[in-house]
Here is the input.
Amino acid sequence: MGLIVSRRKFKEDELVKVNVDVDMLKMMQKGHGGWDPRMEDLIGQVGSVHGIYPSGDVVVEYREIRAYLTFNPDALTKVNQ
Here is the structure.
C-alpha cells in the first residue's frame, strides 16, 4: 500500500500573497495557468484562495480588481490576519 500525499498547500478562503519577484513569477507560471500582465501589480497584495486544481495550482480572488487568477502554489505564501 502506497502513501498518498496531498499536493494542496492551501485551503479555500485562506489569505495568500505572491512571495517572489516579477521575473521569477513569470518563469514559475509556465505550466501553471500562464502569465497574466495583471499579476505584476498584485505581487505582495493579499488575495483569498477561491479554489485549488487537482494539480495543486491555486485560483486566487482579488476582490479589489474583480479578478480570479491561477498561480503556481510555490509562488504563494499564507498571510495571517
